[in-house]
Amino acid sequence: MPRKTMIEAIREAMDVMMGRDDKVVVFGQDVGFFGGVFRCTQGLQAKYGKSRCFDAPINESGIVGAAIGMAAYGLRPCVEVQFADYMYPAYDQIVSEAARLRYRSNGQFTCPLVVRMPTGGGISGGQTHSQSPEALFTHVAGLKTVVPSTPGDAKGLLIAAIEDPDPVIFLEPKRLYNGPFDGHHDRPVVPWSKHDLGEVPDGHYHLPLGKAVIRRPGTAVTVLAYGTMVYVGLAAAAETGIDAEVIDLRTLVPLDLETIAASVNKTGRCVIIHEATHTSGFGAELSALVQETCFYHLEKPIRRVTGWDTPYPHAQEWDYFPGPVRVGQALLETMEP
Asked: What pTM does this model have?
């Protein structure tokens, strides 16, 4: 099976769906002729024309607002917000219109819309190019939220998102675009071409939204992660020698609570990791669900390892980023008798 970057896999997903369905359109800032700031849409305008893949003004509210109108009239727009940090002008459109269209119309209209956004840090992007706003979407009824961690998952989940009849927020960990990242910023980068998880099937396939995958089986403690943090969790388990079961959530809404509960009931311990700030991060929701579902099986308090409650720093990025040392310390403390 061929190995590809996450950028190539995302591009393939849009290419496949544009080829299968004339109603699929792609647009956003610089996504047409230029192919996107990360080149995820490179070549799509040349292949499908300027009416199917085109550039939009620097106006996130306008991009998403226009896409909602298109979706209501039967198209399937897949739009790009250049960085997740830039989505705030579009947040009202996403929350007040896209998420509620099916409900407010009593099912007369749906909103088959995908909003793609590069998310997370680890690229020296500072406070305006490194945010992880997933909790702002998971809180909103009517939205699905996806965070892939491998090229193969990115392609399959994006195809599923485009095929979905309701709005999907598709968050792409940009630190994973060209290879996995375990938090050791001082080590050479391993490209996807040399990693087993870089394999991507050709053609059309989709992965069901709401299904997690166990990246590392274990019996001592459950690690819940998504996006870049999956590889940090794997590194922390390897470096501490703890037999951790690492679960890649893949989609936050819908959430695969069944897989989570089965693992925590087996291990009796749980560590949750994410890049976003600590307070009201999605880890708090995960912690509450684990507590409610697995209370009588827990041997230790649930631990969260996250970003700090500050803007994402530039000069102190690796003090903010929840790397394998911090995660490993949480694992060790959780395993104390």
From this structure: 0.97
Distance, in Å, from the CA atom of 232 to the CA atom of 239, rounded to the nearest integer, reads: 10
Task: Judge contact between 226 and 252, C-beta under 8 A.
Answer: yes
Instruction: Write the DSSP assignment of 105-138 as a string of letters.
Output: TTTS-----EEEEEE--SSS-GGGS----HHHHH
Question: Residue 129 catalytic?
Answer: yes
In angstroms, the CA 197 to CA 44 distance is 25
**Structural domains in the chain?**
6-198 (3.40.50.970), 213-334 (3.40.50.920)
Query: Half-sphere exposure (CA, 13 Å, Cβ side) for 56?
Result: 24
Neighbours of 64 (CB within 10 A): 27
* From 129, 139, 204, 206, active-site residue: 129
Report the C-alpha gap between 1 and 152 in whole angstroms. Answer: 11
pLDDT of res. 337: 87
Mean pLDDT by 10 residues, the chain (337 residues): 96 98 98 96 98 97 98 97 97 98 96 98 91 97 98 98 98 97 93 96 96 98 98 98 98 98 98 98 98 98 97 93 97 95
pLDDT of residue 189: 87
Question: What letter represents residue 334's amino acid?
Answer: T
Closest listed residue to residue 134, CA positions, set 313, 280, 8: 280
DSSP state of 165: S
Cα 61 to the chain's mean position, in Å? 21
